[in-house]
Amino acid sequence: MANKYANLVGTNKIKDEYSKINTGFDKVEADINYANSRITAVDNRVDRIITTPIDGRTAAQEVVDARVSAVKSKTFATLDARFEETEQDIATHMVEYTNLIKKTTHRHMVDVSTISTGNASTFTVGFLPKKITALSSIAGGSSYSHSIQYAVEKGILISAYQNNVKNSAYDQYMSLVYVFTDANNGISGRITSFTEDGFVVTWEKTGSISGTLVIEMLAEGV
Questions:
Q1: How far is it, in rounded angstroms, from Cα 66 to Cα 78?
Q2: What are phi and psi of 202, to 5 degrees?
Q3: Do 86 and 122 have their domain in common?
Q4: What is the distance between the alpha carbons of residues 34 and 41, in angstroms, rounded to a whole number?
Q5: Is residue 6 part of a domain?
Q6: 32/54 same-domain check
Q7: How many structural domains does the chain have?
Q8: Is residue 2 classed as helix, strand or coil in its secondary structure?
Q9: Residue 157 predicted with pLDDT over 70
Q10: pLDDT bracket for residue 102 (50, 70, 90)
Q11: What is the Cα–Cα distance from 115 to 168, expressed in whole angstroms?
């Protein structure tokens, strides 16, 4: 059978075919050298994939380490399996957390003529609130305030209208209620403490203001 290395004529003497044998061995050696060069190239490529640092870590080792969860005391079959379980855990906890949040809305109506600076009013929501959102206005009037205050007694007054001119401000102890009919007459109330089932507002009255203060509140807690 013919081959690429050495095709000897069987009827000829070896001395006559000898050069063909040497040529055949040369071809075999050339093919072996080529195969070795390809093996070396692949081997180097594999070494680079395994040992090339990524942020100071060995690439393959980093992937292997990432499959191990110390928190769950388990090793995942693949990195993708760990990602999938993590996403499922996040989705489950989001549902659990949402179910834990308590929310309630209240409407409070206060006759401002009965309020003096320094007076305090207790508002009950049924649980320890962490956040109070309030929309306040004088019934029938155009001035109002919209504010948010947290259980750490730090509030953000989002907007307050005085004579229909919008003013925005932030203060560590900003008012939950801030309603002025004009620049010199109005009422404000700041949360001064939180209780197990509500909070206390301390009032400050400026000038002369009358009517019914309407406070729409959203209380949130856990």
A1: 9
A2: -105, 130
A3: no
A4: 11
A5: no
A6: yes
A7: 2
A8: coil
A9: no
A10: confident
A11: 25
pTM of the predicted protein model:
0.49
Please check the confidence at residue 216 and state whether its pLDDT lies above 60: yes
pLDDT digits (tens, 9 = 90+) for 35-90: 889 898 888 777 766 666 666 655 666 677 788 888 888 888 888 888 888 888 88
Could you tell me which of 167, 201, 203, 168 has the C-alpha nearest to residue 183?
Answer: 167
Are 30 and 85 contained in the same domain? yes
Q: Tell me, letter by letter, the H, E, C secondary structure of 111-157.
A: EHHHCCCCCEEEEECCCCEEEEEEEEEECCCCCEEEEEEECCCCEEE
Distance (Å, rounded) from C-alpha 140 to C-alpha 180?
Answer: 13
Nearest one of 125, 143, 122 to 189, comparing CA atoms = 122
DSSP label of 163: T
User: Is residue 139 domain-shared with residue 56, that is, in the same domain?
Assistant: no
4 found inside a domain: no
Instruction: Map tokens 């100071």 to a residue.
Output: 56
| Max CA separation in the chain (angstroms) | 132
Residues ≥6 apart with Cβ < 8 Å to 71: none
Residues 194 and 112 in one domain: yes
Q: Which amino acid is at 164?
A: N
Phi and psi angles of residue 151, each rounded to the nearest 5 degrees, phi first:
-70, -10
Look at residue 100 and tell me whether its pLDDT is greater than 70: no
Place of tokens 């549902």: 95
Rounded Cα distance, 213 and 107, in Å = 10
Most confident segment among 10-14, 74-78, 101-105: 74-78
